[in-house]
Sequence to fold (881 residues):
Amino acid sequence: MKENNAPKTIRLSEYRAPDYLIDETHLDVRIFSDYTDVTAQLHIRKNTQTAVATSLELVGADLELLEIKVNAEPVPESLYSIADETLTMNNVPGQFILTLVTRIDPKRNTSLEGLYVSKGMYCTQCEAEGFRKITYYLDRPDVMARFTTRIEADKSSYPVLLSNGNPVEKGDLDAGRHFVKWEDPFKKPCYLFALVAGDLSVVEDRFVTSSGREVSLQIFVEPQDLDKCDHAMDSLKRSMKWDENVYGREYDLDIYMIVAVSHFNMGAMENKGLNIFNTSCVLASAETTTDAGFQRVESVIAHEYFHNWSGNRVTCRDWFQLSLKEGFTVFRDQQFSADMGSETVNRIDDVNFLKTVQFAEDSGPMSHPIRPDSYIEINNFYTTTVYEKGAEVVRMIRRLVGVDGFRKGSDLYFERHDGQAVTCDDFVQAMEDANQIDLSQFRLWYSQSGTPCLQVSSEFSASSETFTLTFKQETPATPGQPEKKPLHIPVAIGLVDSTGNDLPLELEGGTRIDPDNPVLELKQPTETFVFRNIKEKPVASLLRGFSAPVRLQYPQSREALAFLMAHDRDGFNRWSASQQLVVSVLEDMIAGFQNNESVQPDSVLVDAFRTLLTDSSLDLAMVAKMLELPTEQFLAELLPKPTQVDAIHQSREALKQALASSLSTEMTSVLDRYPLHTEYHYRDQDVSERSLRNTCMYYLMSLEQDDVVERCLNQFKQACNMTDQLSAFKALVHSSRSEKSQVIEQFYQRWSNESLVVDQWFMVQASAPQADTLERVKELMNHTAFDMTSPNKIRALIGAFCNNNPVNFHNEDGSGYAFLADQIIALNKLNPQVASRMAVIMTRWANFDQARAGLIKQQLSRVQSEPLSPDVYEVVTKALK
Ligand code: ARG
Ligand code: ZN
Fold:
């Protein structure tokens, strides 16, 4: 591990094209039980366009160099030097073959980057800079080479040997060993390299592309997981078809392989022709996987598949451009999921996530633009800003140029840059060129960080029959960016009349607004729009479909919100109105909590919820979504600081109970109307029914009455699927009923062999609101099923406690903070990437009262006094700045 107390900052402004290029990379990887030897033959040539240097600098980490040759001649020690993760060679020829033999130790690699071992299986993760842990290389995405990979290992332990491209040769060797050689016809940056060696079973299928080429599809898993691949395979085929239909993109190799590994830092990785997936993002079965899990598998499979074009065929010039591939690909997978299910429900989930996590990130010390301009450790920038806000920026471009214009733009982008490593600017340029529009102000979304706040006021004049909307945009200062410029913001709107219809939009001066895409384009700090021929006071529905990632501040009465909830044509805004109504009611209750008085929820909300529960003409999925209370984390992000941790928790619980008791008849009849399914299908109607029933169960369980507890226990026992079983399990474990200890035991006994279900078991317990939860979490860290080298387990137990359990984590005695700091210090040595994710939780200290902020900072300082990985160093330093 690198231990360095002042790692250096890398800046976009200092980008230089590479001095040397690599045309071919031939790897020979020989796996032995105690070490692995890698021979790399690199065909290197000077980049005549840019080269100034005469020395070649390759990077490498945790490598033992055994051999170095130029054009087959050993290089004398006087001609090269190794220091600080670089191998420097002086006076190299203009073109030559460099041969390197390095020895590595995958079994001791707990960072899970480079080549490592997960449950006995060798696998790689090279993005962003893991390839340097395999051999010395020009480990940067603008160096693209054609790869061949020969893998050699013991045949009985590692019968399956995989790499990118097509297998071209295989054979048996002495001493029970064998080899397979792979060839990837597409040149690629080394971050897309992958290798797998293990004892794996495979599920196979095929896909015929639109031009008639047959592609073999293979999903490799451990033998006991063979029955959990159908959903991933089906999602893959639908993704392939969808990308042909919607983007005109066909797959380009004869094989597409996916390998499931249990120890994985992130969700999955788009290595060319050989995706490597966290088991949690590929395995799915009715018995072990929730509806949300099925949805996640579908979207991650799609995401990685879509990268084949947006990421692999056209890649990033440097890591500052990460959003070029990630923002675009998230946008593509969101579109895909919307097309596979309910567009509105998907949009709601995506926006909810953005507003909870990305808005929080963008208002804290780690705030950065979607194209950051500096970093210490690039792994810290695989963020919701680069991914999800990046997707929002692409979505805004699509809104500005229209659906057809967007397709023209993406066609031009792929055609113009196929085989290249390019920048975010190239993407915007293609959109501009294909549509003859000017996106120069819009480009600020790439360089300016922070969430813009959009304050809106409105005025109706009966005498002049006008309705006036005034928008004021302001982006708060963020680290390194004290002054902000006005952004180009598309605001989709509707003016709704008393019958629920949208009024025709005609601006003073005569401009008509396109009724099919009613968008106001804001460019100035303040802008006013006067709509004419408005005869009655309308209710304004603003930012429909969440047309821009901004904080909208438009005070509306509860009656207006309830009206929009029932009548807005835009499904997203119906949901948004319901959330705003709930938040406004909660604000009263929180204020009451502070004055020690209990406030009953406004009847406007109770009546609106009653309608949701009883009106059978409503869309079930929407009803379920609208009944879901915002999470404590969402509320913490939205409400004024310092965050009232306890008031938020208590008020939300009180609201849940008040709604449950006022609406218990209606909720109970939902339970009767939608009895437990006896067969599981992952399809919209069933998912909605389960979601609505379980939401009602969750409300009713807050009353902890015997009949509901009985029902919940029955559901726990009888459920034929994980969605229903886990909902019941969670409701019981989060209650104060004595039955729960038995339920916890039963659930574990039933699922102890299913690692991903055990993750859920940890998660539910770690997020329990009861006061003894931290003690329980500490106890569970000694449980046989817990594993500090498994990111999934860490997220399920430590992550769930610190992220999803605000009242306990923020206990004013500071015990939660001390616990987290201990874990960060331990993880820093084992797995810096995961440690750094955990450290991010502590960066939000400024959102809390002085006492808590002080305690968090104390723990941050304690972490800071350790020898830190660059990952944790960057986060902690920025947090304490
Ligand atoms: N490109 C991958 C994805 O978006 C993410 C891999 C990032 N891994 C990392 N260790 N930073 O699907
Ligand atoms: Zn991605």
